[in-house]
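Lay summary. Proteins are chains of building blocks that fold into shapes, and those shapes determine what they do. In this project we predict the shape from the chain. Here is one chain we studied, written as its sequence of building blocks.
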Amino acid sequence: MDKEFSNKVNVLKALAILLVVSGHLEFSLFGMFSPYSFQLALFFFISGYLFNDKYINDVGTFVKRRIKSLLVPYFLYNTFYLGVTVLIAHLTGKFWGEPLSLKNFFITPFLNGHQFDLSCPMWFVTQLFMTMIVFLFLFRVLKKSCDNKIFHLAFFALSGFFAIPLSKLITLDPFNLIVIRTMFSLFFVYLGYYYRNFVEDKIDIFTLKWAGAVITLQSILWLFNRDFDPEHGIGLSYVLVWARFDEQLIVPVITALTGIWASLLVLKLIYPYVKDSKFFFYMGDTTYHIMANHLLVMYIITAIFLYINGIPIQERANHDIYWIYNPIQTTYLYFVLTMVISTYSGVALKQIKKKFFPDL
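And here is the predicted shape, written in a compact code that computers can read:
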């Protein structure tokens, strides 16, 4: 992997995690592209973009690497957040998570990842693991049966588009939730692979005609957006972890596509200016740790605000996990502090791992 390619991937990953954190603070970095409308699809896209064909014939190595890079740190964090959740319960009188049990510690992470509220954004990690394993096996079968990129694209596109109507036809028990999430995410994994191998250096998708078409499409979609008034239900956003698409059928897939295009355009525009930025590099290199820790950082910031204003910490227990103090005035301060603290915490953790646990 050459340096420029690696740097561009890091900047794109940094953009993706910025979108996730801003979404949890309920504002959008991309204007007409709503929070929760494409951020996770972008991460799946990046995973497909980085997929190497050599693993098609080396399944064992692929699975071992995904276990090492995704599941091992996940369960280390799971143990950490078990301790943090117990400590906070002692301080506030509220247990932020599901009841303690072996099932909730080992099985719930693969079902919905909400065993501990403070680490619930990490549900994406176990879903990414399952999606990538399924993707590898499906891709192997597809290449052997019909090695045609258009056929592959059509297959995975049908998987993504059909996931939403299927979610309305079946009972969304824990297993079916995994099925729906995997079907939806497989499309964006393959799309990332397809973009890198058949589009990126061959077709210019950032011309004025492309921009006009995407902006026009997104503007039309915005006419039906209801995200600014939660009482009206989901508009352009969706909640993938619970397969919550409300009345939508194809809009979530379309907004994910337009959002990914917008992200690639932003990457193209800002890369010359941030390619030498250590902070952007650190963000892109520590997205796992930022995903894992940003709610805890926000929780601590809120506790400090409460202390400064003479409000008992127990007040925090009266709100959900995403609640922040005085959001009208503090949202952007939360955003900046959360990104800086969680990024440099991630850098420190990577350095500790490299020094003391190089084989982990």
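What the prediction tells us: The longest helix spans residues 59-92.
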